[in-house]
Amino acid sequence: MADKTPPTQLSPDDVTPTAENEQPVSGRLSRRSFLTHLGAAGIAATAPPLLGATPAPVMEPAAAAPPEAEGVVSVTLKVNGQVHPMKLDPRTTLLDCLRENMDLPGTKKGCDHGQCGACTVHVNGRRVNSCLSLALMHEGDEITTIEGIGQPDDMHPMQAAFVEHDAYQCGYCTSGQIMSAVALMKEPVGPTDDDVKHAMYGNICRCGTYPNIVAAVQQARRMA
Ligand code: FES
Ligand code: FES
Q: Which residues, 6+ apart, have CB-to-CB distance to 76 below 8 Å?
């Protein structure tokens, strides 16, 4: 005769794990518990720290130098008789320095490649294409721009001759033309118009006012 004694109450260890009552068996993790723990660990690794948790050490960004100090050098230029201490990117051309750092826009940028003469200034009395020269190279030099040659109420004789001979149209090349013309007055240039044209060949005028320019230069030379 079969034993009809009802089973005693089951302990948790005696319960067969099912989808409904999955429990640890004999001290081991079930497959579901194991995957659940694994998933929780993965989330914890990527989740931001919780309140109360020990904060992870924060990496301080390397102290960055102020942008304006990066690669900048000190230079002092003497322009039109005035001394200008400044800080410059060493790649700055004399032309850009004059126009953008010193607010002297009379010197023009035409080609920026040494081909048009619009950027002509004087360095120690000699004409120079300022687009081809680095500002840094001119510490200690005497630099003269069109603003230093004369002003509307006190024009240089060459400026007055350009006005008198109508030696410009748009005027973009004119400051470079005048700076070259003033410099050639001290150069060994012959007396003829062809001599002047040859001496001014580096100054291009897109408006084609060459006859008037030559006439102006010759008048100023005669007066000098
Ligand atoms: Fe310097 Fe043209 S801008 S030569
Ligand atoms: Fe216009 Fe010379 S006057 S480019």
A: 83, 84, 85, 86, 139
Residue 115 Cα to ligand 2 middle (Å)? 14
Nearest atom of ligand 1 to the alpha carbon of 204: 2
Q: What is the pLDDT along the chain (224 residues), one digit of tens a residue?
A: 444 444 444 444 444 444 444 444 444 444 454 444 434 433 333 333 434 445 555 555 555 555 556 789 999 999 999 999 999 999 999 999 999 999 999 999 999 999 999 999 999 999 999 999 999 999 999 999 999 999 999 999 999 999 999 999 999 999 999 999 999 999 999 999 999 999 999 999 999 999 999 999 999 999 98
- Euclidean distance between the first and the last CA atom of the chain, given in angstroms as a whole number: 147
Give the Å distance between the CA of 17 and the centre of ligand 2: 97
* Structural domain total, the chain: 1
168 CA closest ligand 2 atom index? 3
Residue 23: inside a domain, yes or no? no
